[in-house]
Amino acid sequence: MGSLTLAEAKARVQKLRREIDDLRYRYHVLADPAVTDEVYSSLTLELRSLEERFPALVTSDSPTQRVGGTALEKFGQVVHQVPMLSLNDAFSEDEVAAWGERITKLLPGKTVQYMCELKFDGLATSLVYEDGRLRHGATRGDGRTGEDITANLRTIRAVPMQLNLELAHAETFDAALVSRVRQALRGLRRIEVRGEALMSKVAFARLNRAQEKAGGGTFANPRNAAAGALRQLDPRVTASRKLDWYAYSLVTDLGQRTHEEEHRICALLGFQVYRETRVVSDLAGVRAFHQEIAAVRERLPFEVDGVVVQINETAAFRQLGVVGKAPRGAVAYKFAARRATTVVQDIIVQVGRTGTLTPVAVLAPVNVGGVTVTRSTLHNVDEIERLGLKIGDTVVVQRAGDVIPQIVEVLSRLRRGNERDFRMPSKCPNCGAKVERRAIAGGTAAGTRFVCTNRTCSTQRLRRLRHVTSKGAFDIEGLGPKVLDKLVAAGVIASADDIFRMKSGDVAVLPGLGEKSAANLIAAIASRKVVSLPRFINSLGILHVGEQTAADLAAHFGTLAELRAAALEEIDAVPNIGHVVAASVEKFFRDRRNQRSVDRLLDAGVTVEAQQQRAGALAGLTVVVTGTLERFSRQQAKDAIRAAGGTPSESVSKATGMVVAGTKAGSKLVRAKLLGVRVLNEREFAELVDAAGGALAKP
Ligand code: IVH
Predict the structure, then answer these.
(1) Mean pLDDT, to the nearest integer, of 14-34?
(2) Gap from CA of 201 to ligand 1 centroid (Å)
(3) Which of 112, 488, 585, 605 is the most exposed place for a label (fewest CB within 10 A)?
């Protein structure tokens, strides 16, 4: 691969793109279980490295170009050629029956079928293709005009950048349908498909954990999180949020005669459609589908809030027309939410490690769908305002999927007159220090933040210390929250550096902790004094900086000294880091007290490892080699990884970027597959580091 000519590279690039597109199709459309993420990723990696060597070969629709490199100033507008409607809701069998009767009356003498499908709880979006290429992706907006979020939608792998106009894989579809589509495609330039952008439950949980760690605001549910991700002006942020997309309607006439065919055509063209749909001939069938989905709802990978029922015959559906903003021929048959009413007895305030005050509702205990709920986070004051919530109010509490219980509505008509407004305290409920109101501009959780201004606030300090010893930071075994809290209470630890100055005699103050355990704890602490730069940065508890951002900063600056000295513009220029985060980092290091606490940590014997400047094909990746390699000894493999900008590591975790598997690879390979870490064989690895060898050379 070292001496590839441009022509050879071009041929390879084209082959790779075809193969990657095909894998995407097989994975998302055909749900082919043989397609693995590893193969997809490693082909993409090879393509990326070829494109880096031969920039002339980069095209805007290359699978490597899903994530754009620049943030927008603001979104443009897109006028929908066909308005984006909404659906009328039905909440009971009776309401669905009433809808069915109206339809029957409007279509005298006709028998119709009903197509049932999931109602995804995400956001309606429209995708417009011209000559097979994604041209515009837009939100619904007011139904007539939406926002142009093309760059964000492109980052979603389930969204095709290029339609399958050659109709590859046509053999898996009905031949008569395929031939109608082929006819309709002749001379056709523009195709519009609509569907739902959503965030899976897993991606949502991961995002909220990361937000929490970074001291930022969390999202109330996957829908809000998906909306937040799509509203990002920087598509790199959207890409990191891992959204999914399902098609549900084909706006362009491609010869479809039923709604079911619409789905099939969407799939044929390369869209992901959800397979669990059913065509039934009466409302009993509709009810059965509704019940079945309700029963498995919790186990679905994403949230659904009902089923959509639509007259299957396209002609009849069109004939029924629109009333208000909704088509007559379809209805959203919602699930009864797991909801209950209760009283908000109080609103208390929790102090976080960055000083952020979070209001939490104290509820009269109530059973919501089988679980007793007594607390519900209100996230921030903006949420309280949005709800119009007062202390003493009767509220509706909802539990949706894996989401923590939330207050969704205030029943204000049940007020008795003695309800009280919540006011954020002007003093910290823990230490009594002044509370300040700060606006968060942009960012992931824009809004108002109230903060305790006392950095020595004991609760803040305790939470900060817990963060310092946590898994993503110094990761000190035996120094969990319980032991830590006791040491703080005993006055042994007041700040992070105290942890590293402790002697076994200090630990002995803890009741119930023997000499042996005390010695173990001291040894565990000593073993963590040498710390990687990303962990160290994360341990500082900088507002908006979690593990990932810490890793990005470390990869860019290489040493603590460089980071400490960086100007705002430099931090702002780091990939994946936006203005709000950059400003927070700069402010942190400019603060005298923070400077002193960093110095004190270093004085206490903490050594921060420098990180190699990242360049090359494995830039910023942690790579684990497992099994036996032919061409490389272990040491050579490690050197090659480092030379390509990666970090060799022994153990496979979620943070692992890549696993190189030789022969006789065992449990590490299994673990990598379980975690979805990409896996390369020796040949692929060799090609990659050889390619990087050419590009590297410079320090
Ligand atoms: S069909 C006329 N099918 O529900 C509107 N909508 O009010 C055509 N939704 O925000 C919509 N899953 O985004 C349709 N399988 C599905 C859907 C679905 C979710 C959403 C849609 C819109 C709302 C309808």
Answers:
(1) 92
(2) 19
(3) 605
